[in-house]
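Note to self: keep these together.
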Amino acid sequence: MFNPNELVLERIRAVEEYDPATSELTGRYTQIEEPSLKTAAEGTAVTDAMGAEIATFYKAQTGTFSFSNSLFSLDLAASQFGTDKEIADTDNKVTIPVSEIINIAADGTATLKYVPVGTTGAEVKYVKVINENNTFGKTYEVSATAGDDKFTLDAANRKITLPENVTGRAFVRYERESDSAVKVTKNTNGVPAVKSLLIHALFHDPCNTNSVYAGVINVPRAQINPEAVEISLTPDGKHSAEYKLQKPYCDENARLFDIIIASED
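Structure:
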């Protein structure tokens, strides 16, 4: 009979998010650090006339599961923001802001790296010249015709034409479209959806570490806590997340989660 008790937890292999209604996978995270599973309850003490505690009754039992992902995850960010990751294709392109420094030719022309998009004829609104000492100089505004303080734009051919006496480099800000991009948006009214979780783990027998057991923590109802989402923007930073665990409201068994261990066949 397989009946383990004390085990060595090697690591959490993966955390998987599912839509509880359809069982569709919505996110999977594999670089798990510092995973922690906690439970909590609200206690109500019953005391006698002298204030001595007779018993404590517990209700509103909840749990939390938290971890840090070693890598920045777009799927996890989308889940935390209460939104969907937008995946571009040829029919639904993603608009991307571009900041570019380009060289100005002797005839005052400069070529953008991408085709700009936006208001026709004003896809690029301003061009700012960069001085030799790397400070910003004069600003030129787009125009249909040439002028001293103006530049013309041929968006389809990515060409900007400044007055002929303008040389050096220019700073240009515009937008482009891409069918090979993804986008995650944080809206102030976005609320993380309720998910179900499968937390996969590896265990070993402490008396024989060659004996490997597969484990899974099955959470039927979990919602990411959006109160304090922090995404580190450094190479060695971590992407942390915390889920609030609650029983499915209509579940008569009041199941918060299951810890299941099985021997590897």
